[in-house]
Amino acid sequence: MCNIQEEITLNFDVKIKPKSKNCVKCKTAKATILIRHSTYCRKCFQHVFVGKFRKNIEKSRNASNSGSGEKVMIGFSGGPSSRAMLQLISEYNEVLPQKQFYSEIVVCHIDESLLFNNQKSTIPQIEQIVRKYNYPFIGLYLQNIYNSDVTKSGCYNNVIEIAIDDAKILQQEDSIFSPSEKLLNLLNNISKLTAKEDFIWYLKLCYLIDTARKNGCTRLFLGDCSTRLSIKIISLTSKGRGFSLPLETSGETDWFKDVIITRPMKDMLSKEIGIYNQFAGLEDIYIQSVTSMMHAKASIERLTEDFIVRLEKEFPSTVSTIARTGAKLTPSDYILEENRCIICLMPYQENNKIWQNRIIVMTIPSLQQSNGCSNIQQLHCSKNSKNPYDCSNVSNDESMTNIEFTDLLCYGCRVNMRDIKVANNKTILPPYVAEGVEEKKKKDNRKQMRKHIEEYLLCNEEEL
Amino acid sequence: MSSLKVKLSFSGGVELLFDNIKQKSIEISSSINPPNPTTMKDLILWMKDNLLKERPELFMSGDTVRPGILVLINDSDWELEGELEYEIEDGDDIVFISTLHGG
Ligand SMILES: [Zn+2]
Ligand SMILES: [Zn+2]
Asked: Domain-by-domain residue ranges, chain A?
């Protein structure tokens, strides 16, 4: 179908109705749905939609070679895409009751109602939906990311406090704030909505992955559809997150090692999902977000959404073109496991600090005054060598410079941190971030120690 | 001049703009703009003037529905029904679904 031509005809004679078209698939039934340039009848639309999903999910199952018996988790926001995904996964897993593909399906939802004044929790509504499927349900509150058990060790009780020129690791009990207050303080101290949205998303992601891991799930299903992914591809690029983009938008990634992330909805447009849910009678839950009911320029994410959705209306191949181009991106060879940002857990570029100092005008005000700012490296070293052997116990006031701390962040998170006002209430980052800092320090210390004693070591057998 | 009974449904967040009502039956003139029969274009303007409670820019863009809001007329995609030019019939079932900020 040619949109432009149709518009012209409409202009010449407004009363003309488009000729009734037949379905491109069965060729006989009257078409009732337009997807990109193709017209479908209701039956064929559903067939094609489910087919696309099955193709993706089979592909990921074959790739991982897990056979049956895999325990998986569905990240369920309650939005249309994850709602459809829940239904599709359950249908897929119950095709042959005697041979289920997944031994257990757990559904996890993170409630963000704290962020919206006086809003009711979303958990009861979500639980009601999940109950229909008889799957175990885990309802979490975003603020509980501050709990000491949302860490690798499962009981890490230190947090990071961001002050004007240092970031301090301190014990959680020393803080008089509740998890809710900590989260609200953190988000309220971020002035830009873009950074706020970013923070919320990565906190959720970290929470989901941690929960999947602790529940023995080897796979986490996320409901990003192609419309969403193409919005992400553009917005991640403009936020300087291009390095991790392939991991954050691919159909599947093993970046989190023991928990594989799969996005089985990656080939469906949000329009297709809306129609599918409507026809299947799947109830939707309206989930508020920080940019809900806001104008398009509220954040990069919102602006990108507005841009893409408008473009898609005029040029129905926009989303699929962006998504397909994005799918061709592969993770860079320079992605190293050890260079994992301690906030978003995404990889950062080796030496991105040097690059950033050269290219970007970004200084940390108070440090600049005292240090002239070019001898960052020196400062870093002297601080680090303070106690190279102590790694198990952290004293109450172990502090590091902001520079040291930002060394462990990706570019995107650094930009976000710069957006944090430290003057007001205390900005406290959750335990998993503090744990990440310590882990990294331990590793660096071990490396350093090895370097010191290298010449005294006998030949290492492993290296022979 | 007769009137038309139309059933409107809102979901995916569109309902927030309409006083949080998910379904509403309305009665409108069969010719809002005489002598022409009432079309989707007339209906949308009518909705804006009579039903819309908040932020018209979140529902409309120009004189049409904002991109990202899906419209189904009797379970059929309005893009195949002539969009704004579609002539409303008595008993029509029209659904507005927002597909924005979904995930
Ligand atoms: Zn057909
Ligand atoms: Zn990061």
From this structure: 21-65, 66-363+388-463
